[in-house]
Amino acid sequence: MSKIQSNAQDERLINDERAAATDRASAISRIGSDRLYQHEKSISMLLQHEEPVLRERAAAVLVALWGRKSYVDAVIHMLHQDADLYCRLKASSILWNFATFSASNREDRDIVLRALAQSVARDKDSMVQAASYKHFLELTSPERAAGVPDELDRDSDVEWELMMPYLAN
Asked: Which residues lie closer than 8 Å to 98 by C-beta, 6 or more apart?
């Protein structure tokens, strides 16, 4: 496969701590789009980077775009523990994408459903709760997903009985 978007500078940028985070994130996206799998190790090291945009972009390429199951736990950790709101919101989308397009079996999908349900139940931010609930419903009851408000009221907007099997474990 020939390169579509990336270049030699992108390959240098992903490891250059002096470069702007936004430039590095764009380079990760281009490398991801070109499916340059030889950079997987360098990209995976950014899952723990101090810059939120680099953590999110690494997770998006590795799990959503490349479907790498081995990094799903890192994205679940991002969803549940990351201090950055944007990272938690994106982690919810990344996990939905993995479950929709890359999960190879019911067990993989259930791991994602458990993580999304736990996010609805535990995250303190209503936008993260709403994103996780919407993604949960898109995977379990797609016809209900459209009615999820952008900011969730867990007491009135959540159908807890749908999520209980995933919260029990």
From this structure: 63, 64, 67, 69, 72, 75, 108, 112
**Per-residue pLDDT reduced to its tens digit, 6-48:** 888 999 999 999 999 999 999 999 999 999 999 999 999 999 9
Quote the tokens at residue 56: 């999110």
Token pair belonging to 75 = 């994205």
Q: What's the whole-model pTM score?
A: 0.94
Residues of the chain with CATH 1.25.10: 1-66
Looking at domain 1-66, its CATH architecture is Alpha Horseshoe (1.25)
Nearest Cα neighbor of 39 from 30, 49, 51 is: 30
Q: Are 6 and 36 in contact (CB under 8 A)?
A: yes
